[in-house]
Amino acid sequence: MKEAGCDDESTNGVVVMVEPYSQTEQIQHVIYRILDANLDRAREGLRIIEEWCRFGLNNAQLALECKHLRQEIANWHTPQMRAARDTLGDAGTELSHPQEEQRANIKSLLQANFGRVQEAMRVLEEYGKLTHPNMGKAFKQMRYRVYTLESTLLGYQRHQLLLRSRLYLVTSQSENLLSTVEAALKGGLTLLQYRDKTADDTVRLEQAMKLRQLCHSYGALFIMNDRVDLALAVDADGVHLGQQDMPIAIARQLLGPQRLIGRSTTNSKEMQGAIADGADYIGVGPVYETPTKVGKAATGVEYVSYAAKNCPIPWFAIGGIDPNNINEVIDAGAQRVAVVRSLMEAEQPTLVTQYFLSQLYRVKANA
User: Fold this and answer.
1) ∠ CA(5), CA(7), CA(8), 5° rounding?
2) Which of 13, 223, 232, 331 has fewest C-beta within 10 Å?
3) How many CB atoms lie within 10 A of CB 223?
4) Is 96 a catalytic residue?
C-alpha cells in the first residue's frame, strides 16, 4: 500500500507525488485488522479450553480437537492480516466488563471462552467473505464444530462429576430450603435434586433458578425432578424420572446428549429396563420404609446387593437412609447414597453431609 500523509518524494531530482490510501485500500486495511483481532481471539479462547481438556480432564481426544481447530485457524492468519495490527491505536483495548474480571468456577470459565470463540468465528465468517471466497464457508463449519465441542465437553464434565458424586440430596418442602442446601454444599455435596410435588409451577421455577445458581456456584450438579420442561427452562444439568414419568428416549430427544437422566427403580427388571433405555444413573430402593414414598414397600438391602453385582452405571441407594443405618447399606455394597429427610431435617446439615461423605469415601479408599 502507498504511504498516506506524504506530499511528495524526490528521486534523482524528480518530484514524485505519493497518493494517499484509496477508499478501497482503507476499507481493506480495516477488514484485515478485524480479521487479525478475531483470529487471535478465537485461538486464545480455544487454547484456554484445550488446557482444561488436557490437564483438567485428561481427555486427549477433546484436547486434540481443540488443537486441530487452532491449527486450522492459524492457516488463515496471513502476513497481510498480521501487518494490519495496531494494538496502540485499538480503542477496544481499554474496554472491559465486570463479568470479565472474575470467574465463579471452571464451568463459567469454559462457557465464557466458548462464547468468545463462537462470536469470533461468526465475525471471521462474515468479514472473511470479503477477503477470500472460501473463508466464510470454512469458518461456518468450524463454528458448528465448536458448538459440538461445547456440548460434548459440558456433557463430559457432567458425567465425570456424576461419577465422582457419592452423596445425592433430594429436597423436600422446607422454609429453609436454600440455607439447608447451601449448608450441605459447604459440607461437600456435589449432586442435588429439586423435588416438590405440590408447589405451583411459578414457585418451582423460581426456586429451581435459585437452586441451580447456588449449585453451580459451588461446582455441584443440579437435577430437576420429573419435569423436563422446567429442567430446560432453568438450564438444569439433567432430570430425574420415576417409573410413571416420561420415557427416557423422549426425554433424551428433548434434553440432548449432554444432560443427565436418572430413573427410579425398585427391582431388577426396572433396573435392566432403565439401563437399556439409556439412563445415566438410577436410584435403587426404597431400601427402608420412608414417608417420602408412601405405599411403596421397602426393598431391603437385598436389592442393594443385587445392584452392586449387576449395575454397570452409577446408582444410588435411596430410601430411609440416615447416619444410623448408612453403614448397613454400605456393607451391602452401596458406594453412593441418596437422602432426603436425614439432611433436609438435620440441625447441622454441613456436619451430617461431612459424616455421610466420610463413610462413603472410606469405602472407596478401601475398595
Assistant:
1) 130
2) 13
3) 26
4) no
Nearest to 139 by CA among 257, 130, 152, 83: 130
Return the pLDDT at 220.
96
> How far is Cα 353 from Cα 188, in angstroms, rounded to an integer?
7
C-alpha distance across the termini of the chain, in Å: 71
- SS3 label, residue 197: coil
Q: Copy the grid coordinates of residue 82.
A: 498480521
**Mean pLDDT (the chain, rounded):** 91
| Options 41, 166, 195, 263, the catalytic residue | 195
Q: Which of 252, 293, 336, 342 is catalytic?
A: 293
What confidence tens digit (pLDDT) does each residue in 103-128 have?
778 888 999 999 999 999 999 999 99
Mean pLDDT of 218-227: 96
Residue 54 is a catalytic residue: no
Q: Are strands 260-265 and 281-284 parallel, antiparallel or unpaired?
A: parallel
Predicted local confidence at residue 95, as pLDDT = 57
Cis peptide before 257 (omega within 30 of 0): no
Is 264 an annotated catalytic residue? Answer: yes
Strand 260-265 relative to strand 167-170, pairing? unpaired
pLDDT tens for each residue of 126-143: 999 999 999 999 999 999
Report the distance separating Cα 309 and Cα 299, nearest Å: 16
In the annotated binding site for Mg(2+), the residues are 226, 245
User: What nine digits make up the cell of 9?
Assistant: 518524494
Annotated binding residues: 193-197, 225-226, 245, 264, 290-293, 320
Which class for 354: exposed (0-12), middle (13-18), buried (19 or more C-beta within 10 A)? Answer: middle
Q: Is the predicted pLDDT of residue 8 greater than 60, yes or no?
A: no
- Domain chopping of the chain, boundaries: 8-159, 165-366
Grouping H, G, I as helix, E, B as strand and the rest as coil, residue 171 is coil
Has this prediction a pTM greater than 0.85?
no
Q: In the predicted model, is pLDDT for residue 2 greater than 50?
A: no
Kindly indicate whether the domain formed by 165-366 is annotated with CATH number 3.90.1330.10. no
